[in-house]
Amino acid sequence: MKKTSVFQNGLIWFGAGVSIAEILTGTYFAPLGFGKGLAAIFLGHLIGCTLLYLAGLIGGRTGLSAMETVKLSFGQKGGLLFAFLNVLQLVGWTAIMIYDGAISAGGIGGSAKLWAVVIGGLIVVWILIGLTNLGWVNKIAMAALLILTILLCGVIFGGNASAAAMDDSLTFGAAVELAVAMPLSWLPLISDYTREAAKPKTATLASAVVYGVVSCWMYTIGMGAAIFTGGSDIAQIMLQAGLGVAALVILVLSTVTTTFLDAWSAGISAESLSKKFSGKWIAVAVAVVGTVGAILFPMDDITNFLYLIGSVFAPMIAIQIADVFLLHRNSGKRNADVRNLVIWVLGFAAYRVLMGVDTPVGCTLPDMVLTMLLCVAAEKLLPAKNREKTAA
User: Structure pTM?
Assistant: First the structure.
């Protein structure tokens, strides 16, 4: 199998970070004011991208896809639950991303439904080219996005508009959680790409750092737009600044490069459900379903979707981190690790409870610490027998 370079992995995660959904999420931070909002963005991404790195490192070291690494902690049958949930969330993400891109492009010109079809079609083209063959296509796309996003920054931060007033509609802890949520949503995907890296550890670090920096940038653009221009419609801001065609390129290309990863990983996760599935064609099907969903259903507020993803996958990755890096356990040859499944249910419930508690670091970090402590305590009290040790 052709291996990907550190540079290629960096490009992949640059494309993942440049996203209209991330810019729109950044607009929610405006009530905190620029300084406090920026602190929440940085803290949330520091937490989320550290977890992203650890998740990717597991796949890089083992050479397994994201959902195959999950089986190391939950067993062959137990891992199927998370593969199924991951496919569902990726179908949801594909639809949301196409919807956001199409609505924004439609705000500049043309029908949003037509733009959904165009974006969906381009995603299918990206899938058919394939991850390891994107090469020059990705380089050209990323160079264009970099230049155009810098222009967008100039439009938002180069004006003379006064800052909007702060209010208490968003707490600092809730803002941190919104910043954690986006990198957390990539946790069940990153190993799908680091497993193919020629230098897994370096490529994983580059992936997490590049994504973290770019995602912070996108959040800051969104927050700055809401604070300094008084609006959150990025398309209209770009249109009023005279970006025109450049605005359309940003909106469409950023949506395609990000959503391609969602659809591609949905296909890889489906392969974990059954060997009969072809990852590439499942990815194409997910792109088509996502396009239809974007045309038929409104998807303007994704905060509850982000929190649902957090409650499912935060305790899952906490158990994986504990097993691989602390306890050196491997349940990959078992049908199901019931103990870890019970701990995951407790972690899921704890996350939902913690959502109602305002902590300075949100609820993901406390939930994961609690879940990892449960793993360690369970190993001390009920040590499992006949389980292989991991090499991590």
Answer: 0.81
